[in-house]
Amino acid sequence: MRTWWITLTYEWIKMSRMHALLVVLAALPLLLIYLLGSAFDSEIKPAKVAVYNADQGAMREGVDAFWQGADILPYVRPAVLSSEARVREAVQGGTADYGVIIPADYSDKLAAGESVSWHTFDGHDGRKNIAAHSIVRSYLSQVNMKAAAFKVLGPESLSGLESRHTDAAALVKVQTLGGGSDQSFGSISAIQYYSVAYLVMFLQYGGMTGAISLLRQKREGTLQRLYGIPASFSAVVAGIISGAALLGVMQTIIIIVFTKYVYGVDWGGAYWGIALISLLTIIAGSGLALTIASFANTVKTMQTLFNTMLFSMTFVSGGMIAMIQNKLGLISKLNINFWANAALRGLMDGSSRVLVWQNIGILAAIAAVLAIFAIIRLPKVVKQHA
């Protein structure tokens, strides 16, 4: 136990000094998650709308209640300002996505049965302009319909106008047009989708570092010298592999914490499940790397083969092109990434626990098989003439 612990500590200290390695394994996945999550994010965030109501008439209360209605919050987040100039400044300065000014004669025109309109100012984001403009237009369409009815039916037709101010949002549905099923990320967002894909991918890279360390120490003769000391050689090898596994644990913590609090990724809250899936992914990645290393013998060859396999598994499991796994059928399921991704996404979107555990079970079986293969082939990795 003491030999294992000393070796693990030494490996961890050695890897902590490899700054380039740490950047690749921690910073690169965060960058890829941000770039791909932002590029393919089709969700329209609520538009920040600057509102100035210059009307002091009878309809002012109804307008104010409309902007305070909970049913428009998925589309717009209004901020009431004190002047028209401040609304213009907010839109031009980018602190607001859209501006609305209710004119001072709004109530008077409605009382006279005239058509009314609001002054609006578009911001820099075209999608948010569409969402805000749809809300405003829907509300004014109802109001002008009432004004037209006033001319025909008289003042009683305006009764209840204020009480119906929230109906406008119910008529609006904002979504991305032209997005077919191939562009869908299922029940999770784009950034959630890629957070899972690249967490799984780079955890396997972390597991590969153990195989690289063993091959390098074998080439340099370090393992042969360690074999001759009065300590368990198995514990030494286990310590080196455990150091790589510990690096994978640190990767998991960094990626999940950073994406949760900086990118706002919702991981679903079942962190026990995330920890288990991550651990199984690390074991599977380490087993695969050690198995390849037992045939490759050199670091360069092993890295080339491992990179090729890992990129292939990431691609066919949908980690590069979203939902391509639905088109590839069985071939997409014959790898580590598919089952790890499916289990993590199931935890994210609240899928059936039975289905999540099935995915975890298959991942555990793959990890167990690869670990057994790695143990059987391990002498080929650590011994000169095995």
TrEMBL record:
Membrane topology: Multi-pass membrane protein
Protein location: Cell membrane
Pfam (any one): ABC2_membrane_3
GO function term, MF aspect, one: ABC-type transporter activity
Membrane-crossing residue ranges in chain numbering: 193-215, 227-258, 270-293, 305-324, 355-376
Keywords noted in UniProt: Cell membrane, Membrane, Transmembrane, Transmembrane helix
Key word DNA damage present: no
Residues annotated as domain ABC-2 type transporter transmembrane: 27-376
Protein name, as recorded: ABC-2 family transporter protein
Organism this protein belongs to: Paenibacillus algorifonticola
